Amino acid sequence: MTRADVHGTRVDAATVADNKATQRRYVEQIQNRGDVAALDEFLAADAVNHTPPPGMPGTRDGAKRIVGLMRAAFPDHDAVVEHIVAEGDLVATYKTLTGTHRGDFMGIAPTHRRVSIRIMDFVRYRDGKVAEHWNIVDVIGLLRQLGVAPGPTRASESDAARGGED
Hints:
Blueprint: E1 2-4, E2 10-12, H1 13-32, H2 39-42, E3 43-49, H3 60-73, E4 78-87, E5 90-100, E6 114-126, E7 129-137, H4 139-145, H5 155-162
Parallel strand pairs: 3-7
Antiparallel strand pairs: 1-2, 4-5, 5-6, 6-7
């Protein structure tokens, strides 16, 4: 069985399953273990991050800097894949990243607060490696939890205000 991806190429079901498995390995090895050296195994040399943080390049080297920044700011962080969906060459994940703010984070001094960050990633694979990346991060929720933006300071307070979990 094959499927056409959004770029008009054909991707078989085994490749779709492989891409999902690779994405889960990426989360475990890179995000959870902080193995920056392994990024070269996962990212194509010309990989593009379309949504890098301010001041970061959207390149493979930029991805290494982002992983380092997150590890330094939240050294105990752990990402949990809540949902993963794949079609064609695209893999989408909805994750919750939880950690303690123990290092500088984009100019915010350590607060030692435990935070929970909601993240959606969309990744396009080419030949088994990440070729393109887009993400949506609940930055306002994170800043509230760090105490630097108005509003509920914990994700659970925000959920309670909406009447429960999503």
